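Chapter review: from sequence to fold.
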Amino acid sequence: MPKSVSCTPNPSGVHFLSNARVANELVRASGVGSGDLVVEFGAGFGAITEPLADTGATVLAVERDEHFVRRLRRRFQCRDTVRIRHADARLFPLPRRNFTVVASIPFAVSSPLLRRMLDPARRPLCGADIIVEWGLAKRVTTRIPRDLEMAWWNARYRIRVHRRVPASAFTPAPSVDAAHLTIRRVPGMTGATHKALWLLLASAYRQPGLRAGSLLKTVLGGRPPHRSLEAAGITPHTPVREVAPRQWAELARDLATVRPGRWPELPKKLAEDR
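The token string follows.
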């Protein structure tokens, strides 16, 4: 039987990860170590904070509940690399240098936190290993996302389900299972690439019935460069609703290299480091 970590039931209804094996695997999969900066949202009673501290990384453990903040500060008072932050994870200022997120995210705020992490083009997020509700994990990792926002995320990050996490791994147990989600930044995304990518994605999700060649012709205001489409594994006759985010990213990278100065600015919510 896996070792479990006991905790006081949370009066707010949040489900705390209480399976030490799952917590250790989450930290191990992240690959963080000495010199890394890690943000943990919803630290609770420290089930993930402890193995994170053991890696030697600097840990910013964010917790909203004052009761758990006091417990965390007592528990980690001799750990110089652990910094307890009493704050709402949705408002906590994220680091402006490279960082990783390792956390079991409260189900109720999973979507807002994913937006904070993944929306801004300049967010210095290297990657994340997080636990989220199973249904959300499946929606986020589908090959062709159902909406523009998730396509934007998947074009710039490799997002995968690492494993299913049973409801029994939490205290109290939720009514549904969860998932260990891995998120890794795609290298080589320049400012021009982000601008080209957003224009392509926004156009595609606005006109899903168009063929790729027709959409590109409209976007560029002229004959589409078929070589760029083919390099991304897209044929001119492919319906844009069948093009995967990674293919849009490859196309954007190629077009941004050939035409670096022609792309409109990103919307404010994507350009700002919120």
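Two observations follow directly from the output. Residues 1-12 have pLDDT under 50 and may be disordered. The radius of gyration is 21 Å.
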